[in-house]
Amino acid sequence: MSMRIRTSACTALTVAALAAGTVLTAPVAGAAPKAAAPKFLSASQLPPHPTSSWTAGPVTEGFPEGLGLCVSTEGVLDYDYRNQEFRTDLNTGAVQLTVVTGTAAQANALAKHYDDLIRTCADRIEESTPEVEAEGRDYGKLPVEEGARVRGLHTETSWGATDIALLSVGRDGRTVTVVKWGQMGDFGDAPVAAFKKTTTTAVNKLY
């Protein structure tokens, strides 16, 4: 949805398949130490802004509000969520989420679930917010680690405000990452090639 619109557009979506037949157990005594936390993008690895540099915020625990429209934790197991937000001085922002699951199979299901949420986001926005027109585009898969996919989302309000966002979902083993870039504008303003490079870097950099 437009960065000006805070109305939640997410409907209740369940992912029972993620949890079915899966039991998460605590480490036993003498088990190997917990794996290192996945790494995040640096500000310089985001699509270059023509007139303003990126500033990176701190890495924090939890699910970022910036992804709450298209991607949410609704119906998803309580995984290890961490996020980092980025901004420029000119109303362009970005956010990266990392999710560490219990197994590679869980991560695969979660990545598909997140991609499905992004794919259907435009329809859900229009259903819940009649004054907003939304369009999604598929920019294809990326051959990195266990794979990634890039999509675009354009929204326009009845009073003329327009915003463009690029979103991607990628996976490395049992870890999923979601990256979002957004600013005012339309599809012609979206740095698709640069965002694909950012997504590839994000997935490669996890470990």
From TrEMBL:
Leader sequence residues: 1-31
Name of this chain's protein: PknH-like extracellular domain-containing protein
UniProtKB keywords: Signal
